[in-house]
Amino acid sequence: MDPMQQLIAKVREENLTNLEEKGPEDAKSIIEILDTVLSKNKEHSHGQAPPLDIIIYALNNILHPTFLPDFMSDFLHLFTMIEFYRIWITEKAALAIEMNTFYKGTSDANIILLAQEEEDFLRSLIDSQEVYREIFMTIVEKCCTLDLKRLWLANSNVDFWVRWNEYLSIFNSSNGALPSHSFHHKLSVDEIDQLRGVGLQVRDFMDTTVDAAQRLRKG
User: Fold this and answer.
1) How sure is the predictor about 219, in pLDDT bands with cuts at 50, 70 and 90?
2) DSSP per residue over 98-125, as a string?
3) From the centroid of its chain, how far is CA 17?
4) Alpha-carbon distances, residue 36 vs 140, 154, 195 (angstroms)
5) Could you tell me the superkingdom of the organism this chain comes from (predicted)?
6) Residues 6 or more apart from 176 whose CB is under 8 A from it?
7) Average model confidence (pLDDT) across the chain
8) At 80, is the pLDDT very low, low, confident or very high (cuts 50, 70, 90)?
9) Where are the domains of the chain?
C-alpha cells in the first residue's frame, strides 16, 4: 500500500476523521501517526507531504478552540507543509499558462485551451505568490519569537535551548549542518535575515528579563 494511503487508513482506523467529535488533545495523536507512518516509509515518502486534508485536520486541532503553545513546533511543521502545497500549485499554474500560450496558435481541435476566466484565476495565483510568501514568513517569525520567549520564562532553560537550536540552526547550514526544521527548506538570503532578526529580538528579551530579575533580587 502506498505510504500516503496507509496514513489515511491509519487515521480512519484511529477514528480521527470527525473533527467535531474530537478535542485539541488529538493533535498529538495525529502527529504521532504522521511520524510513525512516514518514518517506516522513508524510502517512499522522502520529499512528499502528507495528504492536505490530514494536515488541515491536525492544524485545526492545535488552533481550536484555544491555541496550544506546547505544539508550536508541530504547528510550524504542518504550516510549512501547507506552504509546500501552495508553492507546488503555483508552479503547476505557471506551467499550465505556459502550455496554454504555446498551443494558442494551433488549429488542432483535440487540444483544449484554458477559458479566459481559468487563465485569469491561474495568473492571480502566480501574481499573489510574493504576498503569500511574506505572510508565511511573518507567521513563522511571530511563532518562533513567541515560542522562544515563552520557553525562556519557563522553569527549565533546557527546552529553550533545544528549541533555539531547532528554529535558528539555519545559520550553521554553511558549515555542513542539516536544517533542523522544515521551514528552513529553500529559504532565501533575505528570509534567513528575517530569522536572524528573531534571534536578535529574543536575545534582547533575554537580557531585559535577566536585568529585571537581578533588580528584583536586590530589592
Assistant:
1) low
2) HHHHHHTT---TTPPPPPHHHHHHHHHH
3) 21
4) 25, 29, 30
5) Eukaryota
6) none
7) 81
8) very high
9) 1-48, 49-218
Catalogue the long-range contacts made by 72-76 (C-beta closer than 8 Å, 24 or more residues apart): 72/143, 72/146, 72/147, 72/150, 73/147, 73/163, 73/166, 73/167, 73/181, 74/27, 74/31, 75/143, 76/140, 76/143, 76/144, 76/181, 76/182, 76/183
Over the stretch 150-196, which tens digit does the pLDDT of each residue have?
Answer: 999 987 889 999 999 999 988 765 555 566 788 988 889 999 999 99
DSSP-assigned letter for residue 23:
-
Phi-psi region of 124 (alpha: psi -120 to 50; beta: other; left: phi over 0): alpha
Of 215, 139, 217, 214, nearest in space to 183 by CA? 139
Tell me which residue has cell 554553511: 174
Q: Using CA atoms, how far apart are residues 34 and 191, in angstroms rounded to an integer?
A: 28
